[in-house]
UniProtKB/TrEMBL annotation, chain A:
The lineage of its organism: Bacteria, Pseudomonadati, Pseudomonadota, Alphaproteobacteria, Hyphomicrobiales. The keyword Calcium does not apply. Keywords: Lipoyl. This is Glycine cleavage system H protein. The glycine cleavage system is composed of four proteins: P, T, L and H. Its cofactor is (R)-lipoate. The glycine cleavage system catalyzes the degradation of glycine. The H protein shuttles the methylamine group of glycine from the P protein to the T protein. The keyword Amino-acid biosynthesis does not apply. Transmembrane segments: none annotated. Residues 19-101 form the Lipoyl-binding domain.
UniProtKB/TrEMBL annotation, chain B:
This is aminomethyltransferase. Belongs to the GcvT family. Its EC number is 2.1.2.10. Keywords: Aminotransferase, Methyltransferase, Transferase, Transit peptide. GO terms for cellular component: glycine cleavage complex. Coiled coil: none annotated. It comes from Rhodoblastus acidophilus (Rhodopseudomonas acidophila). The keyword Electron transport does not apply. GO terms for molecular function: aminomethyltransferase activity; methyltransferase activity; transaminase activity. Residues 10-260 form the GCVT N-terminal domain.
Amino acid sequence: MSHILFTKDHEYIVVEGDVGTVGITDFAQCQLGDVVFVELPEIGKATKPGEQAGVVESVKAASDVFAPISGEVVEVNAALEDNPALVNEDAQGKGWFYKVKIADPAELEGLMDEAAYKALLDSHA
Amino acid sequence: MTDLPSPTPLHALHLGLGGRMVPFAGYDLPVNYPAGIIAEHLWTRENAGLFDVSHMGQAVLSGPAAAQRLESLLPGDLQALPLRRIRYSQFTNEDGGILDDLMATRLDAAGEKLFLVVNAACKGQDFAHLQANLPDLRLDILHDRALLALQGPKAAQALERHIAGVSALAFMAQQDFIWRGETLFVSRSGYTGEDGFEISIAADFASDFAETLLAEEEVQAIGLGARDSLRLEAGLCLYGHDIDTTTSPIEAGLNWSISKRRRAEGGFPGAARVQKELAEGVARLRVGLVLDGKAPAREGADIADESGAIVGRVTSGGFAPSLSKPIAMGYVAPRCAAPGTALSLIVRGKPLRARVTAFPFVPNRYHR
């Protein structure tokens, strides 16, 4: 059984057992516009919540992508290298960035569930 | 004083089209519409894109010997400018740096009336500069006129349906046309590298005119994002980025905009530096850069030679939709400025391989 959690910086993590799949939210890709390049973390990199773990480049600008939790990067989405537009087409699906082995499940409690994230977006609107 | 960005006469139209609005030079303008920057960019290269550039400053400078007098503030040759022709030039400072760049159109045979278009972010300063330095001339700032640009290979055929005769206008020429009783100042010019027009129209009629053009199948609305990527591919300077008060027209590679007479005679602010650079060479030169990889380099990235020495800095950079790869422009030491020179652009501490390329990145397709 997987579930999705969100950061206030518009990253998501889909948690399945002790592995999380991380990317940017559909709201974030919509704000960025056409994604032309994604710099992914290296496999084996140790992530820390709130620290940079990648960069997403739109036509206009570069934006940092922050890690939602502590862990170790175990896989990256190689498909983004040839087709960064996957982030626009399917941000919370085929446009994922990397998978992380979760170091401390307790950190997940600090993230937002779908309802809380939706409330955050509504407060922006 | 308020910091709220001003609406342009097309503001409601942008909102209706789903434009993503951003503050730009004091105005609330669309960075893109739902199609997105890449689609808007490619549409303009293949069809015709309509841009709201009403934020730009428009003015008419008039009075005895206006063309000659304006030459005291810029290196362009306005005395040799034929009637209804347009020149690109730059207001220079005493150090030979650039205060702003502009388009000047000669409106009368005597050279006593000129139409000026300047950058939005500089217009207050530019108009004050003109009034302070040419107090005997009259400056009429056209606050009540919008400015639209229709750009692309199908711009002429679309515009011709509404303004008979407009497609016969020469590149960098201007003519007045009547549309529904309103006088339009139509210039065959633009900022995309494509054929196209820039049209000054009374603010009250701008929205109707824009909607009339958007009803044509060749025409789509285009935002600031694609305006920037189109001009970057065309190798054109963006004021405040690629040219500023420290860069000279010669360093920027704008020599073509300074005639033989003006080079010899000088008589504009900073002429000594311009003449010295023409005679002895420059300390740095604006160049185009095409990156080997897929990661773009942005404004501010250092440029290194093959030994790793820093030889310059990127002033504009991004993804080129028509080339499907990242491109940039920046200033480098002259020894590194030859097309083909291998350089590195330092992005997030990593060197990205790039090669110096002659401007424009994408061939110009102006109307000739």
